[in-house]
Amino acid sequence: MAEAHQAVAFQFTVTPDGIDLRLSHEALRQIYLSGLHSWKKKFIRFKNGIITGVYPASPSSWLIVVVGVVSTMYTRIDPSLGIIAKINRTLDRTGYMSSQTKKVVSGVLFGTGLWVALIFTMRYSLKVLLSYHGWMFAQHGKISRATKVWMGMVKIFSGRKPMLYSFQTSLPRLPVPAVQDTVNRYLESVKPLMKEGDFTRMTALAQDFAVNLGPRLQWYLKLKSWWATNYDLLYITPTHIQAARAGNGIHAILLYRRKLDREEIKPIFLLGSTVPLCSAQWERMFNTSRIPGEETDTLQHLRDSRHIVVFHKGRYFKVWLYHDGRLLKPREIEQQMQRILDDPSEPQAGEAKLAALTAGDRVPWARCRQAYFGHGKNKQSLDAVEKAAFFVTLDETEQGYREEDPVTSMDSYAKSLLHGRCFDRWFDKSITFVIFKNGKMGINAEHSWADAPIIGHLWEYVLATDSFQLGYAEDGHCKGDTNSNIPYPTRLQWDIPQECQEVIETSLSSANLLASDVDFCSFLFSAFGKGLIKKCRTSPDAFVQLSLQLAHYKDMGKFSLTYEASMTRLFREGRTETVRSCTTESCNFVLAMVDPTQTVEQRLKLFKIASKKHQHLCHLAMTGSGIDRHLFCLYVVSKYLAVDSPFLKEVLSEPWRLSTSQTPQQQVELFNLERNPEYVSSGGGFGPVADDGYGVSYILVGEKLISFHISSKFSCPETDSHRFGKNLKQAMIDIMSLFGLSSNSKK
Prior knowledge:
Blueprint: H1 2-6, E1 10-15, E2 18-23, H2 25-54, H3 59-74, H4 83-92, H5 99-130, H6 145-157, H7 179-190, H8 196-211, H9 213-227, H10 242-261, E3 269-270, E4 275-276, E5 288-291, E6 298-301, E7 307-312, E8 315-320, E9 322-323, E10 326-327, H11 330-342, H12 362-372, H13 376-386, E11 391-394, H14 406-419, E12 431-435, E13 441-445, H15 452-470, E14 490-491, H16 498-516, E15 518-525, H17 530-535, H18 540-556, E16 562-567, E17 576-580, H19 584-593, H20 600-622, H21 628-640, H22 646-652, E18 658-662, E19 694-701, E20 705-713, H23 721-737
Parallel strand pairs: 7-11, 11-12, 16-18, 18-19
Antiparallel strand pairs: 1-2, 3-4, 5-6, 7-8, 8-14, 9-10, 12-13, 15-20, 16-17, 19-20
């Protein structure tokens, strides 16, 4: 009962002798420390808001400008061209200031105005400079003199020591391409996939759209544009104690959150440290939940959250993250996790499979939430889940790479993190952190708030911090001491009626059908990596994408519309654009590879043409000249205006039977794979987006490894993820052989 008493700051009882008042000094102390922590956080945010608000200048530069202006006034030089004198005359009307005071105040006001004007000038100049993307289309490895001058100008106007959000106001808006350009690029992308008659019909539809309806929709889109602005380390398991791995992992995530709150995470740059990318997606990483709605879902984001919710054996526990006004240490978090693991209580009625609501159809979940979770203990408990910093699952299974059975173990590991048992991850939370019984861990991320590179950035930091900074004691526990004064985790209480339990079971059944249908193949390609590919003087991404085209043709005997995710974070609040990787050039290369009459020289020539084409399409997508986002926005406008477009309807109904995505390594400085080759991660994956297609995710790990994740559906008789994986491995080797470089060659 001691824990319960600590939760109450004071209590009073009315007795015949008067009022009996009892104070809990420890509880009052915790309230004081909690308030102190909150004000510290507010002050840091306020300070960062000022620093970011005046960037690329600094607050101290205001003093320099003002002192400089005032100093020139005493040398009888007027830097304001008469403006200071006008300010002085205006102040003279007040009659409250001496002549000397008016002179100083006039100088300070003009200096402040000049400082603000310089800030806006620098920002606008930087925005204009960042709107130039010609450097991206230059030949790889060659930088022209004009580009070097441009880079120098960008660095001059970029200021010093930027914080995470420093460049947000200086990033250009995503441009709206010309309708005719988008239509032409679309027709070019589908030409190799259509028969001549179908292509002729589509061309007529497209050109009619470009001339008639397209310009009208484009006008509205232009108007809007002006005001709208995962996996663990494979070979290393530093401890097999589940609670200890959770302690270090959760603490590392919270250290990252603290850096994020303080904007201490460095912005991501391209072209060395020259061109900044948008950082907006980081804002909703923590304290965020997706809220179901009957018409549309919404994202609920809190500025702060001081607790997490932990799921174990069908029970939900609320765990506070702070004690004595400070963040819990790894050993203290381990202690809390072990208390949960040791808790013998049973799940309440309907509690064990409750999270299946987040895995099934959205409308039943939205109706259930409104009917059964709007008041009482259910509301309090659901609030605890949805308002948590993130969700944690102490998984009862053992997962991870096993050398004696690499294929089955990797596939099981991937599927577990993708969907688990469909009721042991809260799929609406931005992050579900999963720790398995044998100490392996991973993340399941909800996708609407951000794209894969954002969660990947967090995970790189967590793995490096866990391994190289926090570490473990010799007995496998977290370093440090336990703390018996920390209150036990709190069991969340539920009162779930039978009607809601029936919806939970229905949601679980539909989710299980989807999950059991996922055919997942995860493997490391170790014959070579990007180090050898770069010796071929080609883009590693283009090499992999052309390998995917060759593998797909050998697997399916045909070409398919292909999606590759490309980022648009060169622009403010940019997300993704589509690279249509199946092109006329890639098809010509693939057909040459399967034609025994073609020579190596001819195949190599076609490969270079296709690779160059792919890189060009990537650059177009990154610089705002892609196809699919523009067409989708035009479709949205057409729906708003209630006009029908046969062209747009047909375009948006085309299935992506090969959906691909590369997860980039962003913080290579955290892991020295030459010195520690065993510290490799297999990246992350996703499910297929078409019932009869493949989903392929890959990560270029260091210089010598490429990790692949291939998904499809068992219910489709035409697809087989492991068969595709074998075709992909062979395609990679076959293409490399064109260059006369064998696996691990030093040529």
